[in-house]
């Protein structure tokens, strides 16, 4: 019984610590690409404990059905031992995190140990190579003109605000999950992420793009279709932007771009507007010079015209052996039909992501004085109710 009480005390202590460090400190910002994974591991352990305790709680819905059974400790011996080991590990990490100075040291060591030592040389050489290609392209007025021909949109204008809206830790359940790991490790793989409006598809896609930007690889191109911006509905704009991103990522790609551009100059010397299927052919040609190309397009359902053609062309791009694709949209019938060869992944707003968002918003309001909660139990009840009744949004 003493062991059981020890576990219960450890659980209570761990939950208290986790509640303190769950959100980011104003004095030190987590790197969401690295340290947040450690917090996520702790959260998973807490959720395992919560599920067991809820099942044994006579006041809960699930526990009420067990009133006729003898009340007993909800953890089996081997599970108790596993939880104790997890708790001790997380307690050590989170106790260290309680000190701002110690947290700063820990995060610095993690960043240096995991990022600098393991990846610095590879990333440095890769970045230098890519910068060299980009500088030569931008520095050459003719090649700069060819890049402008593919499109003038700054795609980062969509990525930056989406990342700003994203709570650190959001989407880890997916980027650490089996489907995404299989996609990254398998050639010519393709995923279709679909869900209802408000399910968090765009924020999830921004998490995926950020995750891919932290890895060393040849080609990465993405695009956000936005219903508020008609130019993002244009197939030429979409495929031109994808081709432009790939064109600056390899020494041989500018040669393909030059051939393409020359073929679209008329006898009068004027530029001829490329067709969507021609741009797709350029993308395939560029991909042949890259070890692997990753194409991510969000919001297919928001395209107001030629949506079927855009979806068809993206599906055809995925047939190229050196290209892997992730697309996202609402579960529209025409899109589903076009993407029948893709692995479908249905998502609703993940409870872990909802907890991050709700907790963050509550803390912001408490800090600003617009919300006053004197009872910690009331705060917990507000969070639980909002998360449970979100219904996937």
From TrEMBL:
Keywords: Repeat. This is NACHT domain-containing protein. Residues 189-331 form the NACHT domain. Signal peptide: none annotated. Pfam families: NPHP3_N.
């Amino acid at each position: 019984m003493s062991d059981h009480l020890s576990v219960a005390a450890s659980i209570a202590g761990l939950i208290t610590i986790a509640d303190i460090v769950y959100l980011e400190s104003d004095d030190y910002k987590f790197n969401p690409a690295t340290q947040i994974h450690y917090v996520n591991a702790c959260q998973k352990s807490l959720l395992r404990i919560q599920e067991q305790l809820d099942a044994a709680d006579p006041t809960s819905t699930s526990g009420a059905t067990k009133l006729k059974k003898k009340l007993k400790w909800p953890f089996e011996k081997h599970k108790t031992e596993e939880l104790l080991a997890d708790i001790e590990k997380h307690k050590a990490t989170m106790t260290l995190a309680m000190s701002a100075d110690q947290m700063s040291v820990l995060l610095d060591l993690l960043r240096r140990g995991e990022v600098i030592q393991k990846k610095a040389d590879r990333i440095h050489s890769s970045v230098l190579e890519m910068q060299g290609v980009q500088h030569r392209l931008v520095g050459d007025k003719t090649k700069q003109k060819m890049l402008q021909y593919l499109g003038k949109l700054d795609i980062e204008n969509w990525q930056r605000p989406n990342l700003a809206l994203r709570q650190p830790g959001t989407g880890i359940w997916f980027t650490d999950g089996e489907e995404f790991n299989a996609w990254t490790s398998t050639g010519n793989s393709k995923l279709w992420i679909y869900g209802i409006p408000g399910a968090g598809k765009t924020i999830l896609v921004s998490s995926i793009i950020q995750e891919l930007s932290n890895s060393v690889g040849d080609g990465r191109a993405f695009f956000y279709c936005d219903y508020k911006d008609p130019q993002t509905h244009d197939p030429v704009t979409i495929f031109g932007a994808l081709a432009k991103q790939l064109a600056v990522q390899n020494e041989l790609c500018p040669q393909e771009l030059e051939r393409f551009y020359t073929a679209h100059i008329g006898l009068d010397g004027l530029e001829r507007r490329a067709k969507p299927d021609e741009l797709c052919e350029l993308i395939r040609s560029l991909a042949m010079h890259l070890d692997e190309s990753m194409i991510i397009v969000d919001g297919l359902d928001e395209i107001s015209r030629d949506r079927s053609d855009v979806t068809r062309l993206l599906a055809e791009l995925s047939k190229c052996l050196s290209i892997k694709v992730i697309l996202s949209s609402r579960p529209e019938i025409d899109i589903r039909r076009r993407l029948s060869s893709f692995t479908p992944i249905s998502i609703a707003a993940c409870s872990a992501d909802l907890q991050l968002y709700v907790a963050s918003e509550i803390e912001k309001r408490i800090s600003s004085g617009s919300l006053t909660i004197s009872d910690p139990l009331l705060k917990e009840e507000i969070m639980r109710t909002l998360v449970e009744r979100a219904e996937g949004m």
